[in-house]
Amino acid sequence: MLTTVKKLAAIVLLLLLLFNLAGYKLWFYYVQEQSDAQLVSNLDRQLYNNQDLITLQIPLSLPYQTDQKDFERVDGEIKLNGQVYKYVMRKVQQGKLIVLCLPDRAKTRLETAKDDFFKLTNSLQAGTPVKKSANSNTLSLSNLLSEFDTQGQNWLLKPFIKTIKYTNSPNKVNYATRSLQPLDQPPEMFMM
């Protein structure tokens, strides 16, 4: 009887360790995929408020660009200032890519919850000093890393788009990017 209890406790602790290592990442991935599928389904059936749409205008520098008269349905997402936006429709007009986006508040909440859970389970609370007792001689991984980590936890990657300009409308965003110059002449093809 005692050996079965020990085996059961070992199995439970092993499952808890496996969940801590990778299980919660898989769980959050599954929940985000379900949320994305639900939102895409609602977008396909046009179950959204047009007042919530945000317009992104991105300048294009492509030769022989043709303007589109109507918007076309498109899938995708972009993350700006910590908020996730889902693409709804797009069109090319007057050398600009115009994308209508809808804020995805559910995915933003899930990503925030995932980050908070990661910080909680791995004891990486930013700004919380580690308390040491006077007679404590134990080493921990967080103490060891905090002594040698001079940059802290600022692992933010700089976005590709350097400047953001807000237009007069609160729902319009204009992205100024570096334009690409077209090649002068295409390469020649050699026939043998």
Layout of helices and strands:
Layout: H1 2-44, E1 54-59, E2 72-73, E3 77-80, E4 83-93, E5 96-103, H2 105-121, H3 141-148, E6 163-166, E7 172-176
Parallel strand pairs: 1-7
Antiparallel strand pairs: 1-5, 2-4, 3-4, 4-5, 6-7
Helix pairs in contact: 1-2
SS-based class: alpha+beta
Number of domains: 1
Count of helices? 3
Distance between the termini: 82 Å
Mean pLDDT: 75
Q: Please report the total strand number as a whole number.
A: 7
User: In angstroms, what is the radius of gyration?
Assistant: 25 Å
**How big a fraction of the residues is strand?**
15-25%
The biggest beta sheet, please?
Answer: 7 strands, mixed
Q: SSE string, helix = H, strand = E?
A: HEEEEEHHEE
What is the global morphology? elongated
Assembly form of the protein: single chain
Unreliable residue stretches:
151-169
Helix content: 25-40%
